[in-house]
Amino acid sequence: MPRKILVMGLPGAGKTTLANALAPLLNAVVFNADAVRANLSRDLGFSHEDRIEHARRMGWMCDRVAEAGGTAIADFVCPTPETRSAFGEAFTVWVDRIAAGRFEDTNRMFVAPERADLTVTAQGTPQYWAEQILARLRATFDPQKPTALFVGRYQPFHDGHRRLIEEGLRRVGQVCIAVRDTHGLDAKNPLPFFAVKRRIEAALSAYDGRFIVVPLPNITNVFYGRDVGYTVERIVLDDETERISATEIRGLTAAP
């Protein structure tokens, strides 16, 4: 999912209302251009050169949030191709709800974007458009698409599990993580299913919509007949080089 989102458009188009409606859906930080100017960019005016520098600073702050694993929304006019270039690569939402804003100098400068990931029109509420943006940003798990299966206890879910599943995502596109019901059998199985599920979802939050976590009985054997239509593989992680290789095997070894 993109971690850097630009909500742009003329002053008065509804950018701030939309950004504030979207933020809780993504657990995102919102950087409002007016607030940033008032606190961090008081040295800048409204010339084109200053607007470019302001966009660069807005983009830099969003990049730091994204690098830390968060999601950042920039809410500002970003009126020209040069300011958008200074802001940097982002999922761009153009709030195209009005023909002119309240500042004539900005109206004269504003150049409509040649491309936007989503264009917001005058129809629809801010919540409606926030949900449309969310749908575009997050993949949706499709049970009919090719899916990799991982079976394990995950007591607890650790970095090795994460790397295995990331390789499954890379190869197949989406995965089903099946958690064996071993809770309470012994001291090595302290976590109930929902505790395991929460840990997996937190560790794989960057892949929202591309995995599903489901409970299983305590599966101890997997049998299959001939020509079952799927491949059973063992993924081997080489800890020294962090390279991943796979060897087709006849049986399935469940993850611990």
Structure description:
- The protein is 35% helix and 20% strand.
- With 256 residues, it is of the alpha/beta class.
- The protein folds into two domains: 4-137, Rossmann fold (3-Layer(aba) Sandwich), CATH 3.40.50; 148-248, Rossmann fold (3-Layer(aba) Sandwich), CATH 3.40.50.
- A five-stranded parallel β-sheet has the order 2-3-1-4-5, sandwiched between helices. Strands 6-7-8 form a three-stranded parallel β-sheet.
- The model is unreliable at 240-255 (pLDDT under 50).
Largest sheet: 5 strands, parallel
Helices and strands, in order, run as: EHEHHEHEHEHEHEHEEE
CATH topology of the largest domain: Rossmann fold
Distance between the termini: 29 Å
Q: What fraction of the residues are assigned to beta strands by DSSP?
A: 15-25%
- Uncertain runs are 240-255
Mean pLDDT: 89
CATH superfamily of the largest domain: P-loop containing nucleotide triphosphate hydrolases
**Strand segment tally:** 10
Question: Largest beta sheet: what is the strand line-up?
Answer: 2-3-1-4-5
Helix content percent band:
25-40%
Round the Cα radius of gyration to an integer and report it. Answer: 24 Å
Task: Using the alpha-carbon principal axes, give the shape.
Answer: elongated
The count of helical stretches stands at: 8
Counting structural domains, the number is 2
Structural class determined from secondary elements: alpha/beta
* CATH architecture classification of the largest domain: 3-Layer(aba) Sandwich
What is the CATH C-level name of the largest domain? Alpha Beta
